[in-house]
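User: I'm putting together a teaching handout on how multi-component assemblies are represented. Below are the sequence lines for each component of a complex, exactly as they appear in our records. Could you produce the 3D structure of the whole assembly as structure tokens, so the students can see both representations side by side? Please keep the chain order the same as the input.
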Amino acid sequence: MSAPLGFLRRPSAPASASVAASTASPPSLAALPATGVAIAVAMVRPRALERLGADTPARAAFWSATLHDEALAAWLAPLRPTRLHVGSEFCERLLPEPAQLARTLAEASVAGLEVCLRTPVASPEVLRALDALFALLPPGAEVVVNDWGVALRLRERHPLLQAVAGRILCRMLKDPRLGNPQYAPPAAHGFASPWTRRLLARLGIARVEIDLPLFASADSFAGVPLPLGVHLPFAFVAKGRMCRTAGLAREGPERFAARPFCHHECLGLAARTERTRDGTHDAWETLHVGNTVFCRHSAANLATLASAVAAGRVARLIVPGETL
Amino acid sequence: MKIVAPIRQLDEIAALARAGADELYCGVTPREWAERFGGASANRRPGGNLPSLAALAEAVALAHRNGVQLSLVLNAQQYSVEQIEFALAIAHRYVDMGGDAVIASDPGLLLALAEAEPELRIHVSSVATCRNADGARLYRELGARRLILPRDITLDEAAEIAAAVPDLEIEAFVLNDGCVYEEGSCNTLHLPGALGGPICLDRYAYAHRHRDGRPLSAALAARLQENDEAYRRWLWYRFSCGFTTTADGLPFGPCGLCAIPAFGRGGIHALKIAGREGPPERKLASVRMVRRILDAHDNGEAPAAVMARARNLRPAHEHCATGFMCYYPEVVSRASEAAQPLCDGRAAGAQ
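Assistant: Of course. Below is the structure of the complete assembly, with chains in the same order as your input.
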């Protein structure tokens, strides 16, 4: 990639520290034990929660089987999860039914896990459904909002619940096709501006979640005004309301339409994706699950995250407890 | 309802106004912005912008002389503090030029604009992905005067939002260009074509699998293959039927013309034609198409006749019938359910 990407190149040299941090070899995960950070397990449909409270070897086995990354599994295993993030930030069809959420709340309590409800970009119908779910949550429970309208509704109608700004609200460039940090325009979390801080305060948002940028550096964690949760080991690249996988469930004009309908096929199916154009390849492994494209962070990126954890800059790690 | 059309060069303004556009919108990438931040960061359309503030001033004057308004697009998904400060400086200059509205997405920029230029109209970009009344109300409280709905919304949802927040104008997509992923939730760039283009058009091979590692059955593999083929057909429609036109130059592709009667009932204020980076002829043909259907609606033509007129604009009933070319395919579904013949040109008196 050279001339054709010239329009992306930042004319003034990027801060050398940022690029250096992402291109130099960071210490390995094993050299940076995860301490002083909470861990949350994210599940669309929680089950077998007792596995999360098991001992370190059992958790290592769980993470290894779930994430397919031995080094990461070993790094996470000493941390006993304290929170369960349920539901989906990506799809309105994956909201739990009230009965499902009630059951999850009971099971999580037995497992010693606090429940945080993840919510997606919301249609009017989703907003109405959320009211019923919010009513089931205990005072102080967290709700991850990925829609400013949901945040306002939470503030106005459910003030005892705690809003967390989700990663969809944290917009940053994460194009897995850009394999060179020099061609990646500045990718920051965007929560640092005084105007955005005022909006967060106005809506009573007390925590924020982000994906790692694809070329993370120490700077990636700077300037966050609130306790920070970081997702790993996948970043979401793009999501649609239209769902390719849901096309399995319907025919006709609305097969790939916005009006959602499916049988939750994405809970069982995923696809590894790879570019086939001559001369192109993705710098990161990419996956397509339902309506969302993910990419897996590099070992170097995860090590940068581990450094940030060791420096006390990350309050919570959020890790999928279901294989993507 | 007003027709809102894009420009990227000055000589498009008079022609689009004469063709029936009520409002225009454009981006600008001043040299200083490109030097500081790179050309791709101003508003996600590196190839569709005016090159300077001088050109922007000329565009505002030209638009007003031709009786139309001109909005300025500053709708990157997110700006840094330095970029917001630079964008505010652009907005100040734009106000001095007599500019009409700024289209923005980043909530930080929205707040900054509302504080710094309280008299300036703010339109919330479709990139903000606002599709509920509470979100619309929040943007209204922050100072927005109009909400541009995302592409992926239903007619019922649009009408519900419009009814719930009556002091916020609602704009909806009516023609051209279809993202696959939601604009506000797509964290990628439109790369040059040789490097893949938009990620949704890039050549990805899919290796489907069960998430629990079980092998796919032959039957499921066949269903997935059929679904992939249907998706590729849909994608072809979503991207303007391979970016083709009729012999007369009318563009195929994402279209909401049949939905204009529903928009009218639903309190929609403005109809957005997308495609800033497209050629001038495409924009001109697009405005003429929308104007023709909107005039029929405004003249009191019955909804079924308006819809038939819309379908008869292009000799492509087979395209329309798929629903894959529709922004609002529920129109096709409802028509099928009601078994109403919508393609009868005689009933509509269409040409």
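A couple of points students might notice: Chain B touches chain A through 88 residues (CB under 8 Å). Residues 340-351 of chain B have pLDDT under 50 and may be disordered.
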